[in-house]
Amino acid sequence: MQSQALPLDPVFQPVRWLPGWLRDWAIRRMKPRIDRREAPRKIVADVTAHYWEGTWAAGHAVRDISASGAFIFADFKWMPGTILTTTLHVDSQVIGSGPPASTVVRARVVRRTPDGVGVQFLCIDKAERKSLADFLNGIPGAESE
Fold first, then answer.
1. 133 lies in a domain?
2. Which stretches of 14-77 are DSSP H helices?
């Protein structure tokens, strides 16, 4: 009795027998998402974020910031989904010279790292968005990423 080899090509290359739309979807899902940011970030050196940690309002350095979010260096790591009311403050700006030196914005924690937390700004109305935009335009020496 002689055995016959079965064609195993579709087994080892399943992408061939998938419908086109499903194959495209699978390929898109497999590719890593490098950057999901909604707006270009500015690297800053003199912006501080103040928020309440349970004991007192602590100030934390901001690494980069944009109209949609920021990365804040912090020892205490909030869980993703936590809503914070944050006061952003420019340390080196002289009061009374142009745009406001600070602004208050609500933010949601979207990621945690060993260094700190990434937050997404939650601007409810036009006034909050304008206040944040004025604050961002008033940051001296910010480099685009």
1. yes
2. 20-30
- Count the neighbouring beta carbons within 10 Å of the beta carbon of residue 56: 8
Give residue-wise pLDDT tens across range 108-125: 999 898 889 999 999 888
Which residue in the block uniquely carries the two structure tokens 């004991």? 55
Q: How many domains does the chain have?
A: 1
Distances (CA, A) of 118 to 22, 62, 114: 33, 10, 11
**Are the beta carbons of 50 and 58 closer than 8 angstroms?**
yes
- In what helix (H) or strand (E) does residue 16 lie, and over which residues does it extend? none
Q: Is residue 7 part of a domain?
A: no
Domain that holds residue 132: 42-139
pTM over 0.90: no
Task: Identify the weakest region by mean pLDDT among 10-19, 26-35, 51-60, 100-109.
Answer: 10-19
pLDDT tens, residue by residue, 33-69: 655 656 777 888 888 998 877 777 678 899 888 888 9
Q: Is residue 66 part of a domain?
A: yes
What CATH number has the domain bearing residue 102? 2.40.10.220
On whether residue 13 sits in a domain, the answer given is no
For 107, which DSSP code? Answer: E
pLDDT given at position 3: 61
In contact, 78 and 117? CB cutoff 8 Å? yes
